[in-house]
Write a structure and sequence with these properties.
five-stranded parallel beta sheet, 40% helix, 5 strands, 151 residues
């Protein structure tokens, strides 16, 4: 209802994607429209949409839902027009819809993803204005540390 964002930040395997999916599932159950997508897939689809002239229609897929969940932002560098596409999604959703973004990168590492200081400043300002930043620190659930043997 408040159109706020949640940024889930932490190392691999701490449950960021799991929590984002759970919140998205709960939002669906109470009647909100939700789109869940891996960051690289979303940006690849927008790149392909530029080629076949369906960019505006494809952009609506990510700007129209009440909640957009973007998983693993910054896992790989953004290429070509991907920084512009990311900015356009953030700009279009600002105060219009909520986002949950998961990332292994610290928040200060998000600015270079835009590859332009002005665009980074504008995008991050909008993204953070109505955001809860959740830093998750734990051992990986996939590869927990082994128990030490008693001597």
């Amino acid at each position: 209802e408040k159109r706020e964002n949640a940024l889930l930040i932490g190392p691999t395997g701490v449950g960021k994607s799991h929590i984002a999916q759970a919140i998205g599932e709960r939002a669906c159950r109470v009647g909100y429209s939700v789109c869940y997508v891996a960051a690289h897939r979303m940006l690849a689809q927008l790149r392909a949409a530029r080629a076949d002239q369906s960019y505006d229609k494809k952009l609506l897929r990510y700007t129209a839902p009440d909640l957009l969940v973007i998983d693993d932002l910054g896992l790989r560098p953004l290429d070509g027009d991907e920084p512009i596409d990311l900015y356009e999604i953030v700009r279009a959703r600002y105060e219009q819809g909520s986002m949950i973004i998961t990332s292994n990168r610290a928040l200060e590492e998000w600015y270079p993803l835009f590859r332009d200081d002005l665009m980074a400043s504008a995008g991050m300002d909008r993204l953070l204005h109505h955001a809860q930043v959740v830093l998750m620190e734990a051992n990986s659930f996939r590869n927990p540390p082994r128990a030490r043997k008693a001597s």
